[in-house]
Amino acid sequence: MTQLLQNRIAIVTGAGRGLGRSHALELARHGAKVLVNDKGADQPGSEAQAVVQTILAAGGDACAHGADVSNPQQVQDMVQSVVERWGRIDILVNNAGILRDKSFTKMSLEDFRLVMEVHLMGSVHCTHAVWDIMRAQNYGRIVMTTSSSGLYGNFGQANYAAAKMALVGLMQTLALEGDRYNVRVNCLAPTAATTMTEGLLDQQALALLSPDLVSPALVALTAENAPSRTILMAGAGCFEQAHITMTQGICLDPAKLSAHTLIDRLDEISNRQDETVPATGFDQLRHEISKAQAMQSYHATGAQTAGAAQDA
Predict the structure, then answer these.
(1) What are the respective helix, strand and coil percentages of the chain, to the nearest 5?
(2) Tell me: the pLDDT tens digits for 44-100?
(3) Which phi-psi region, left, alpha or beta, contains residue 274 (left: φ > 0; alpha: ψ -120 to 50)?
């Protein structure tokens, strides 16, 4: 097997078990040196230490760090330890997460905030800590862990979904800002049987959802020739790509614009024929101005035609 990440330096958060463990092992299998992050990782016999030992036993190089990703000072300490040990940071995998599932009416604000702190702000803290390092070395690969719950919603997961969709927005902007520095930023939307999915699926389905079947997608998003600004979905050995699209929509004459007219034509607005994937947020503005100007031109041409007919 050709190793795609030979001597690359990687941080994987929440890597003591589940998807994070699988990610760390797969990165190491492809030649990366891996910092295995997990709360309590500094303790002897921890799950993170076990992952490190597995990597070392296979001839790889790894270490553990117990930073809480919701604590920016601890994250800075983790990043500094990587630089001191290996001299650079090439890959960041923002994987750490928790669940506090309840319907919104039963969910406390504390549980909402906690999930946002770990998933969203944890990813922000880690990314911010490595960002200037990656820019200075003109190389970086960052992966945010999003979810179909964020992309499409899921009952009882308002906090989790909000955090996961926020990570998509973070990825979209950082991919643009990192482009000139060869810092590529992507999202991975995994489906896997982990402690976070216990009790949600039957055993037959869970048997198909090994985390090992997701991690090759992570390598694809962190390799030398990785894409950027991609939402890659993975589960059960299957892979898809999600897009946030914009329909062609309609343009209404300001003189005739009303909520009633808009409501009557919502089906036209939602028609997905020829929908596009905007390159930046400004594409909505450009699209709407272009349509509005075309309408003005059409009306102006119509008025001139009518005037010419009257003169004749």
Answers:
(1) 50, 15, 35
(2) 899 999 999 999 999 999 999 999 999 999 999 999 999 999 999 999 999 999 999
(3) left
Which residue type, as a one-letter code, is found at position 142? Answer: I
Specify the range with the lowest mean pLDDT, choosing from 10-19, 76-85, 271-280, 296-305: 296-305
> Which residues lie below 8 Å from residue 161, measured CB to CB, with a gap of 6+?
147, 149, 150, 153, 154
Tokens of 118: 């770990």
Residue of 76, 84, 87 lying closest to 37 (CA atoms) = 76
For 100, counting Cβ atoms within 10 Å of its Cβ (0-12 exposed, 13-18 middle, 19+ buried), the class is: middle
- Residue 188 β-bridge partners: 145, 232
Which domains are assigned to the chain?
A: 9-242 (3.40.50.720), 254-311 (no CATH)
Q: Based on the residue annotation, tell me whether 181 is a catalytic residue of this protein.
A: no
Q: Which two tokens stand for residue 156?
A: 């009882």
pTM (2 d.p.): 0.93
CA–CA distance, 222 with 213 (Å, rounded to integer)? 16
The helices-and-strands tally (H runs, E runs) of the chain is 12, 8
The residue annotated as part of the active site, out of 139, 152, 160, 181, is 160
Strand partners, 275: none
Residue 270 DSSP label: T
Q: Report CA 84 to chain centroid distance, whole Å.
A: 28
In angstroms, the CA 104 to CA 106 distance is: 5
Q: How far apart are CA 2 and CA 31, in angstroms?
A: 9
Question: What is the C-alpha separation between 236 and 6, in angstroms, rounded?
Answer: 27
